[in-house]
Amino acid sequence: MRLTWLGHSSFRLEIGGQVLLIDPWFTGNPVFPADRKDEAIAGVTHILVTHGHGDHAADTPSLAKALDIPVICCHELSEIWGAEGLKARGMGKGGTQILGEVAVTMVNASHSASADFTGVPTAAGSEAGFMIAGEGHVIYVTGDTDIMADMDWMGDYHKPDIGILCCGGHYTMDIDRAAYAAKRYFNFQTVIPCHYKTFPLLAQSAQPLADALPGVKVLMPEVMETVAL
Prior knowledge:
Layout: E1 2-5, E2 11-15, E3 18-22, H1 37-41, E4 46-48, H2 54-57, H3 60-67, E5 71-74, H4 75-83, E6 88-91, E7 96-99, E8 102-108, E9 128-134, E10 137-141, H5 150-158, E11 162-166, H6 175-185, E12 190-194, H7 207-212, E13 217-218, E14 226-228
Parallel strand pairs: 3-4, 4-5, 5-6, 10-11, 11-12, 12-13
Antiparallel strand pairs: 1-2, 1-14, 2-3, 7-8, 8-9, 9-10
């Protein structure tokens, strides 16, 4: 299993014979090297979108059409994109889609979810996270969220051993809150921070997260760096 950070909250995940793009954001992403886009999307089989905000969803329509691949997202967003000709596979929280040997379950998040990249913000369902199970691991992708009590049962029920945690603050939980959530609700073996150092408004280093989680492997890849999980 291989994970490549594409900057901000965007990832390329190679798992169980699938290649998943999670919240891909290339256009206007100040930390993504534009000349490496082809490398980032090579062989992609599905796009997963946690919510409709532009820094998570704006590139999805063009990517999904160009690559002719399905998009997994909340039901309301799938209705919008389906009307635009995308292969949108909507779901609700608690639902699971099977992608070959990979199971993708949508779980709750605490944020907001309008499609704000079309000029006029449009209601686009609800924010979410994903539990991605494959190759003997469960990966929790938080999406954009704050700490929430749901993390208690999510950690107990899904038992994720890998956490992809937003931690930049201002729009999501910050470093301290991400560390608290990881310690209080989960038993992660590996943590990968995201939604940080994209803009000056966000935390510029995730080292304090690593310092707060002794005994947990906290990986902080550079943009377009691939790590084995």
